Amino acid sequence: MGQDAKELRRIILMQYKAPVDSTLFLLRDVLKFDNELLEPILTEIAKLSEESIAPTNQEGDLLGCSYNQRVQDVHVPCCFKEPYKQFSEGGWIGLSVPEQYGGQGMPFTLAVAANEYVSSSNMAWSLFPGITRGAIQALLVSASDEQKEKYIPKLVSGEWTGTMCLTEPHCGTDLGLLKTKAVKEVDGTYKITGQKIFISGGEHDLTDNILHLVLARVEGDPEGVKGISLFAVPKKFDELRNSVSCGSIESKMGIHGSPTCVMNFDNAMGFLIGERCRGLQGMFIMMNELRLGCAIHGLSQSELAYQNALQYSKDRIQSKSPVNLSGPAVPIITHPDIRRMLMDVRSINEAARLLVLEAATLVDKGGEEAEDRLSLMTPVLKGVVTDYGVENAIKMQQVWGGHGYVRDNGMEQIVRDARIAMIYEGANGIQALDLVGRKLPRNMGRAVMRFFKDSESFLTNSYENGINPIVQPMTQAVNELKQATEWLAANGMKNPNDAGGASYDYMKMFGLVLLGLAHVRICLATDDKDRHNTAQYFMNRILPETSMLLKRMRFGSDTMMNADL
């Protein structure tokens, strides 16, 4: 028996139960979103996630992906294939894709709700359909009608998967530096040459074909981001292999079941998607969807960690109760410090779930107001919820003590898997800079001014609903965020380092305010004492961090920039 097989026999499977009741409450009672298929869809995807996908999580982490250098192919964990077949045949990849392309035509909100359950079950596995859905969205917005008919049904059916090929060895965030080139042929196709790195699912044996969406510069087009175009580059045409190969796969901290590939394009045949020199516009459609997906990853790992820590804290007998030192040893959930950690995570998860679902409803709604709110929410949710995903996973690992540090119980895997969500699709520091440098000043500050107007009006009206102990600290936090925004407006232009140095703190403040407002909305929608207690805990123990963050921002950047590093 191989070592991997012996290890698998020792694994204690992580528990996961999809929070269907929570999702239904938040959608129906808080967001006033309902659909006749809402409950059946959530129930079905919950069953698939719990019974088929979740059992592959730890096995996939242990087995990982393998790379054959001789033939340059990649094998994913064999246990991934059956759940992928079930997921594809069930139509889940195309849940929110228009019916004309083989999709179900459901609201995007339902796809996002389903995505949380899938990601909680196996984050690495979820990347295959997740990135494919992002590619589909980019094609829906940017591709020609002929291209949509050609590519999207294959992606929706699960016959093909998609990738996004942006990053190169010398450039990640600064895409204007990319070197991948495109040469136009007489037949209108392009020859793509260059190397891309950190490509999730760039090569694998889960599907027969892979459609790469590649950023490249046509020879003669302007330097910088203005000269970048977007191309569709299939792995193969029928049985003929395109000049696309995987040079290697990365050995990573987490998400072992998802191959992260170095992809080489050597005069590969590609097809222009959208207008020439407007490639970033098409790719950002995909990136924004995937950034919301990152927030879901953060929430999913926090939820998975919470469920397993909660159950362990009920089962683990250790030490006497602090209020009954003469009694027997008690479950550790009795102890205040354990409850502190559990409540920290619980108070984040429910509010974060509401925010993710709200963002999805705004996508479905569309329009100027929805787009303004999304422009602020997207970088904040990506940055803050993924930060909490790691922080919360570590806290829940701590509940397990030494048993959380060993591999068998799965808690250390959650920590490792959660960590990548802070990095990919634009590292969280970049999200903070995007928020402060682009989103706040856009349209003369229209989005943020509308946010403060709506938030202040909402809180004023909420005073009349008998939840003043929750509303009062929120009013202070919104005011502090407003002060932080004014400070940035006054100081950021004079000293860009002040804006850059304060950006992460500002993003965190914004995230805390959004989470707090979510709790107020939850309390207005229900009389449930436990939800009200959770909201009060958040206001008392977590929200006050906004005051510290504001103070920290106001110190400026001198001490960090003057340091001799």
Explain what you see.
With 565 residues, the chain is α+β, with helices and mostly antiparallel strands. The chain has a domain of 123 residues. It is 57% helix and 14% strand. The chain has 20 helices and 13 strands. The strands form 4 sheets. It has a 5-stranded mixed barrel with strand order 4-5-11-7-6. A two-stranded antiparallel sheet has the order 1-2. Helix 16 packs parallel to helix 19. The longest helix is centred in the middle third of the chain and has 37 residues. The radius of gyration is 24 Å and the shape is globular. 51% of the residues are buried. The model has no long low-confidence stretch (mean pLDDT 95).
Helix content: 55-70%
**What's the quaternary structure here?**
single chain
Strand content: 5-15%
Biggest sheet strand order reads 4-5-11-7-6
Number of E-type strands: 13
Amino- and carboxy-terminal Cα gap: 52 Å
* Poorly predicted runs of 5 or more residues: none
Structural class: alpha+beta
Average residue-wise pLDDT: 95
Tell me the radius of gyration. Answer: 24 Å
Short note summarizing the structure:
The protein has 565 residues and is an alpha+beta fold. The chain has 20 helices and 13 strands. It has a five-stranded mixed barrel with strand order 4-5-11-7-6.
Which characteristics define this entry?
globular, 13 strands, two-stranded antiparallel sheet, alpha+beta, 57% helix, single chain, 20 helices, 565 residues
SSE layout and pairing:
Elements: H1 3-10, H2 20-30, H3 38-53, H4 57-63, E1 66-68, E2 73-75, H5 81-89, H6 108-121, H7 123-142, H8 145-157, E3 160-165, E4 181-184, E5 190-200, E6 209-218, E7 228-234, E8 236-237, E9 240-241, E10 244-249, E11 260-273, H9 279-315, E12 317-321, E13 324-331, H10 336-365, H11 368-399, H12 402-405, H13 411-419, H14 428-439, H15 442-462, H16 468-491, H17 496-525, H18 529-541, H19 545-554, H20 558-561
Parallel strand pairs: 3-6, 4-6
Antiparallel strand pairs: 1-2, 4-5, 5-11, 6-7, 7-11, 8-9, 10-11, 12-13
